[in-house]
Amino acid sequence: PTGTAPNDLRAFIAEGLERARRRTHALTACDEEELLKQHSPLMSPLVWDLAHVGSQEEQWLVRDVGRMQPLRPEIDKLYDAFEHSRSSRPSLPLLAPSDSRSYLAETRSKTLQILERVPLEGSPLLQGGFAFGMMIQHEQQHAETMLATHQLRVGDPVLHPVAPESGVLADTAGALPAEVHVPAGCFTMGTSVEPWALDNERPAHEVYVPGYWIDTVPVSNGDFLAFMDDGGYSNPDWWTAEGWAHRNDDGLTAPKFWRREGGQWWRTRFGVVEPVPVDEPVQHVSFFEAEAYARWAGRRLPTEAEWEKTARYDPVSGRSRRYPWGDEDPTSRHANLGGGSLRPSPVGSYPAGASALGVRQLIGDVWEWTSSNFGPYPGFRVFPYREYSEVFFGGDYKVLRGGSWAADRAAVRGTFRNWDYPIRRQIFTGFRTARDAAPAGDS
Ligand code: AVJ
Ligand code: FE
Predict the structure, then answer these.
(1) Whole-prediction pTM value?
(2) Ligand nearest, relative to CA of residue 49
(3) In Å, how far from its chain's centre is CA 10?
(4) Are 65 and 111 spatial neighbours (Cβ–Cβ below 8 Å)?
(5) What is the pLDDT of residues 297-306, one digit of tens each?
(6) Whose CA is nearest to atom 14 of ligand 1?
(7) Which of 134, 141, 367, 385 to mutate for ligand 1's pocket (most ligand atoms within 8 Å of CB)?
(8) What's the rounded Cα separation, in Å, for the pair 7 and 69?
């Protein structure tokens, strides 16, 4: 919402809140039994996510911003992610689905009253509507988490895709260069001005990045099948020691949700079985599988700085853009976002979303593993709470960039940083590869 006037900003926030809530309800519009059940020990029951988004909204917007009386203070601890592990959540005395829904409605009606009356400036929490933006992003992040739960669930489909928009597919997909050269030099990484940027994206700082080449499009299922057909999963040469241990411990032979039958690979997508589509970005691979593929291909994963320079650097102006295509908020022409499609678009899609250097699908489709550990930028300051980012710094987590088809436009941008354990596979994550440019310039 850069430069948006206050009244437009209020409307923009109200629309973002409403969009997030529609999604929360759509993802929990199934039988009670499905909401209460633990579909995987890696995930919360859906009914936990449901009331958790309300609990966070109550704490940040109703109490902190609105200075109103607590609505349900007795449930704070139940829905505190640091109090109870995901696997223990089904046995908690959680609010029933119908109670959760009325709690969300009660909270939201207070939030909308508060949005009418508070100034959207004057304190860091209110500036540019930050606290509201933080809660919109939070609810959308949980929508993506709930989609991962749905993907892990077994049984008849309960989610149905919205037809993809026409006009986003490239007619030039086959003609795109395989990789793009990014010359050595400095660029501005992170942001000090993006109103809804979270603490880990701040502050803006100059970073020198040596020259490199990076894939024009994400690695596809077809590309990944070539690695598999070449014995990629059984050759330790392509894996680090840690990666090989993970491959053996988890018995990996293919991306998660893939199955071989009748001489061909199938995948289950939200309860529907289909042949693996070769032109789609690969997803449901761990960091270690991505790393092994890259080594097999004679390449490597990009660093986080390389990813962000690819996505944001405009060589003509020398400045960093908000998104690959410019400063304009994402539309359906730019990127596959919002979760409706239930799938990534074929590699080479979204010519209108290309970066200044012609790299595609950096935003949307699949999160992308980078080789970097999640850590603070120089000058990092906790804001507004340690448990959003700071407690995850320190090397256990790898940075993911770009946002998947399941992410909402309010919760992705060129500076946005996500993170997860390098063994995670249920998330909507793929990757692209890179290589060093020769020191002399190699262009
Ligand atoms: C930033 C996506 C890693 O889902 O664990 C949600 C976001 N933080 N509730 C997560 C988050 C608190 C977080 N990620
Ligand atoms: Fe949360």
Answers:
(1) 0.97
(2) 2
(3) 25
(4) no
(5) 999 999 999 9
(6) 418
(7) 141
(8) 27
